[in-house]
Structures are given as structure tokens and as C-alpha cells.
Amino acid sequence: MANLVKMGLDGLVDVLKAAGEPTRLRLLALLAAGDLTVTDLTEILGQSQPRISRHLKLLAEADLIDRYQEGAWAYFRLKQDGKAVALVRMLLGATSENDPVLLRDGERLATVKRVRAERAQDYFSRNAADWDVMRRLHVSDADVEAAILDLVGDEPIDALLDLGTGTGRILQLLEGHYRRALGVDASRDMLAVARANLDKAGVTKATVRHGDIFNLPIDSHGFELVTIHQVLHFLDQPELAISEAARMLKPNGRLVIIDLAPHSVERLRDEHAHVRLGFSAQTMSDWLKKSGLRVEGTRDLDSGMEGDALTVTIWLARNERSEGAMPENAETLDVLERN
């Protein structure tokens, strides 16, 4: 009984009214499994779009689901926090695993996710050659990931933010460390890849969103850990992305940056759109300090290969600002937010 949800009478009745209808309960079960569009839901439930939209509206008004826009598409998912959602999860947990309606919904959901994965794999395959070239130039992904896990350690992480989430690999790697996570990327194609990968890995406590790394549509000071994995070398002004990442951190929160050490492989500019040829320890330290962060550790991972081999560096920094304080370049951030 220790985990029993306690709610006021009115709130309890509102949740039960919203969830206590067959179609809406089926929707809640589906949205607990990840992000889905109205089109996905109509295919799974075999009901009209207006009817599905009407039920989703009622669930949103009851604060049981989140809705977010991504271009022309609207995605929905079960909220991750709150007493109302905790009660809904209890209700879903009470449903029979052998219920024929829910079993059929699950089969159709698997089909939707399989089609999503095939589309994502097509995009991935068309670009895999470029990524394979990059992998051959630096230390193995396994070594990088082991170093990330070691640096992150076992500090509690209620909320993780992964900027430039790409394939969603960081969200998978750190799944055992956080309670909830958000990945942000500017590429809708990559978001499709990330969603497919999260589905395949069975990661349901992370979600991905479309967004601008320089102007995140997210409230400040909401995350214990922010990660930026192999993103900064694509940016004209990486220091602004670091400042925006710092804005996301809770007091005492941490930022982990994984990128390349300085190198001279000029062909990466033309062939792979690299704007920066790596970052020195001093440059990164200066940017982090200006954003109110203190460097706690760095790690260089050398592949040991000759020629064009690249060194991967991992920086770990901690937020030293009190809540509500702004970094030194707050004026620049303010301009970005207004734009």
C-alpha cells in the first residue's frame, strides 16, 4: 500500500471519468508505450480521425497526455509525472494480459512500429557510409560509451536532456541512470531513427522532440544531466549551444560533452560538414566557465592508429550557479530566445 496514490475526491473522479471509457483506456495503454500520431492511432484502433481526436482532446484536458507538434505532425504520449498519471498506470497495470482487445491493439502497435523502423532504416542506410567513415577515424564506440558511463557515475538523475540526440544512442546507453529523459534534434529524419531505435530497445521513459539547440523550447533549470554527443563540431557558434545547455541545468547539475580534440583532417569540412576541427582543452574550459560551469574532469580517448586518426575528448562540468542566475553571456541568450 506504500505506493498507493492519494488524491482529492474531485481530482479522482475527473481522472476516472477521463480514463473510464473503453476507447480512451485503450488510447492510454497505447500512449504508455511511446509517441504516436493520430494517424497511428486510427490505424491501430480502426476508428475515424475525428473520433480519435475528440478522445485525445478529453485526455489532454484531464492532463493525462502530452501533445507536441513536429512540423505537420502532432505526436501524443502518456505524461510521465503527476498523481493523475500514477493512478492511470495503476489502472493499466490492473488490465489482463490476455484481454483480446488489448492484445489486438498490441499487435497493431507492433506493426506501426515495424513500419516506422523500416522507414528509419532506409534513411540510416542511405547515410550509413558517411557515418562508417567517421567511425573508422576514431576510437571505438564501445570505448567511448564505457568512458561516458564511468564519468557519469551513479549520481541520481531524475531528468536527462540529450542535445542533438541523433540516433538516440545516449538515451539508450544511460537508460538505467535516469527516471525520464528528453532528446532534442533539429533533423526530423534523425528523430524518426531515434524513435525507431527507442522502440526496438524497449525504452519507454525517454522521448524525442524537434528543436533548435540554440533556442530550446524548454523551461530553464529542469535537468540534473545534459549531454551533447558529437554535435558541437557541426556548429558555427558552439559556445552558444553550451550556454543554452547550461541554462537547462538544475543547480549542481552536470553537463557532459563528447567531441573531437583538435586535429588537421581538413577533408571533414567538405565531406562531412564539420565546421570546427576539434576543440582544445583551454577553449572548452573558457566556454564552460563563461556559462557558469566548472570543469570536473576530462578524458582523451586515442584510437592508437596512425594517419588521420582522431582523438575523442569527454568533458564533465558542473553548474555552479544558483537557480535563477544567468551566465555571463545572458544578453546573447536573451536575444536568441526572443528570435
Question: How is this structure best described in words?
Answer:
The structure is a single chain. This protein has 339 residues and is α/β, with parallel strands linked by helices. It has 2 domains: 9-95, Winged helix-like DNA-binding domain superfamily/Winged helix DNA-binding domain (Arc Repressor Mutant, subunit A, Orthogonal Bundle), CATH 1.10.10; 128-338, 3-Layer(aba) Sandwich (Rossmann fold). It is 47% helix and 21% strand. The protein has helices at residues 9-19, 22-31, 38-45, 49-61, 83-93, 100-137, 141-152, 169-173, 188-201, 238-248, 267-272, 281-290, 330-338; strands at residues 36-37, 65-70, 73-78, 157-163, 178-185, 206-210, 223-229, 249-260, 293-302, 311-319. Strand 2 and strand 3 form a beta hairpin. Helix 2 packs across helix 4 (49-61), helix 6 crosses helix 9 (188-201) and helix 10 crosses helix 12 (281-290). It starts with 8 loop residues before the first helix and ends with a helix.
Tell me the count of domains: 2
Based on CA atoms alone, the radius of gyration comes out at 22 Å
Spatial order of the strands forming the largest sheet = 6-5-4-7-8-10-9
CATH topology of the largest domain: Rossmann fold
CATH class identity of the largest domain: Alpha Beta
Low-confidence stretches: 326-339
Mean of residue pLDDT values? 87
